[in-house]
């Protein structure tokens, strides 16, 4: 049995294990380790397991070790810590409060404020699921109390939560950059315009939806004075400061992405203690949650690194590139096929799992066509973002459903999500058709 066949069988085995709910890390590590063992054991023709033990263990442990000691990986715990600290210090929720004060007088303004708040939360935390979970507890119950239709109250937060994948910092961009050996700083900057474009599209969805059916968003009757609006805007200054440090610092060449992460965490802690919104107990809880979340990501990443080495050993990727080249697919046909694959996987798997499972095969294809890996990264993250709200397993939708309980059944949330999905698909087509949307900022560095 040749290496390519073993690789395809292992890939199928991973999909099978995922279908029966085996955690992605264990599925990748077990399939790739066993596949590597078989390749080395049959290299001389006859099955000789004693010859496969040392090279297999060497490959597994060396790849896991190399990944954990990757300098760029230190960004993940730093940005995860930033999200937890900023939330406990009230920095992220102040963004929503400021947006609510400014937009409440508009019909559907609280839903718009929820989306803007999700965008601001995403610009600090970099996690879509964390954004949906946190903002769902803050925004959705309030909209339901005000008489908002449960489709709008839930779908606006579920969709807004996906902005964490694109607006920097993004954990998905960090993982993509590590596995494709591309600049994480440029990936962060490439996500800014697509993220803002998506945010504007979501706000437009709410405006149009409420204009056509005003009953879904009753007038709250609450009006704030100009003084109150200014006070709310000023109160949100720490969030703006952190965003400027991350994006402005990277764009201006003042910081690397890792340095920006470290400085941002320090600033968030300093601001929290200075404003007396953060105490030592909150900081300790933030660090504990950071360790738990980071450990899970690292285990998946280490397993994925072993899987990447296994795929390289099998020779599947070159054969796949050769097959696609012989088929003479156009760039449009290639990207359409990739989009369909990711959208289908997004219905059943989590974003990190999809990325680490597919990148070993997709990246050689894209490089073979001479496409820009920074632009491709934005396309992939956008596809993963769409998967977070795509039925039947949209993770953000299930997060919101868990928050609201019986107030909004899953079918009602998915019914509201359809409008936001249409905007996501339009933005995806624009990103794919006009790479300049993604590359304008990073190329101007």
Characterise the protein shown here.
GO terms for molecular function: transmembrane transporter activity. Its main location: membrane. Belongs to the TRAP transporter large permease family. This is TRAP transporter large permease protein. It is a multi-pass membrane protein. There is one protein chain. The protein is an all-alpha fold and 445 residues long. It has a domain of 236 residues. It has 22 helices and no strands. Helix 5 packs antiparallel against helix 12. The longest helix has 35 residues. The radius of gyration is 23 Å and the shape is globular. The protein starts with a helix and ends with a helix. The model has no long low-confidence stretch (mean pLDDT 84).
Task: List descriptors.
0% strand, transport, TRAP_DctM, mainly alpha, cell membrane, 445 residues, TRAP transporter large permease protein, globular, transmembrane transporter activity
In short:
This protein is mostly helical and 445 residues long. The chain has helices at residues 3-19, 24-41, 53-68, 75-88, 91-103, 109-125, 128-145, 150-161, 171-180, 184-190, 192-212, 226-235, 237-251, 257-274, 280-314, 316-327, 331-346, 351-368, 373-387, 395-404, 410-433, 436-443. The protein has a domain at 73-299 and 435-443.
């Amino acid at each position: 049995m040749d290496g390519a066949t073993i690789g395809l069988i292992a890939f199928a085995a991973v999909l099978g294990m995922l279908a029966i709910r085996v955690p992605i890390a264990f599925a990748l590590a077990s399939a790739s380790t066993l596949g590597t063992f078989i390749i080395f054991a049959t290299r001389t023709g006859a099955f000789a397991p004693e010859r496969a033990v040392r090279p297999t263990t060497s490959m597994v442990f060396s790849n896991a070790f190399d990944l954990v000691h990757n300098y760029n990986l230190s960004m993940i715990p730093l940005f995860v810590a930033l999200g937890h600290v900023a939330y406990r210090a009230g920095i992220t929720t102040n963004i929503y409060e400021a947006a609510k004060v400014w937009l409440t007088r508009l019909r559907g303004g609280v839903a718009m404020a929820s989306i803007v708040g999700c965008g601001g939360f995403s610009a600090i935390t970099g996690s879509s699921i964390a954004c949906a979970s946190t903002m769902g507890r803050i925004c959705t119950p309030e909209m339901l109390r005000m008489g908002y239709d449960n489709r709008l109250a839930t779908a606006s937060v579920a969709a807004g939560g996906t902005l964490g994948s694109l607006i920097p910092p993004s954990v998905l961009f960090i993982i993509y950059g590590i596995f494709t050996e591309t600049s994480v700083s440029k990936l962060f900057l490439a996500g800014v315009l697509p993220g803002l474009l998506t945010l504007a599209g979501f706000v437009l969805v709410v405006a149009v939806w409420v204009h056509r059916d005003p009953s879904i968003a009753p007038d709250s009757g609450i009006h704030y004075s100009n003084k109150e609006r200014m006070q709310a805007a000023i109160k949100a200054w720490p969030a703006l400061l952190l965003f400027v440090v991350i994006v402005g610092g990277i764009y201006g060449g003042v910081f690397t992405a890792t340095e920006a992460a470290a400085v941002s965490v320090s600033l968030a802690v300093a601001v929290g203690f200075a404003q007396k919104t953060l105490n030592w107990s909150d900081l300790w809880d933030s660090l504990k949650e950071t360790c738990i979340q980071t450990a899970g990501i690292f285990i998946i990443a280490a397993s994925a690194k072993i899987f990447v080495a296994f795929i390289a050993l099998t020779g599947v990727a070159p054969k796949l590139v050769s097959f696609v080249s012989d088929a003479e697919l156009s760039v449009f046909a290639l990207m359409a096929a990739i989009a369909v694959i990711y959208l289908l996987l997004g219905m059943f798997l989590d974003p990190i799992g999809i990325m680490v499972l597919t990148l070993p095969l997709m990246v050689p294809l894209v490089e073979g066509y001479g496409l820009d890996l920074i632009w491709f990264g934005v396309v992939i993250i956008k596809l993963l973002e769409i998967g977070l709200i795509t039925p039947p397993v949209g993770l953000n939708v299930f997060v919101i459903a868990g928050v609201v309980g019986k107030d909004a059944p899953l079918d009602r949330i998915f019914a509201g999500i359809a409008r936001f999905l249409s905007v996501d698909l339009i933005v995806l087509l624009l990103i794919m058709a006009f790479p300049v949307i993604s590359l304008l900022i990073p190329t101007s560095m």
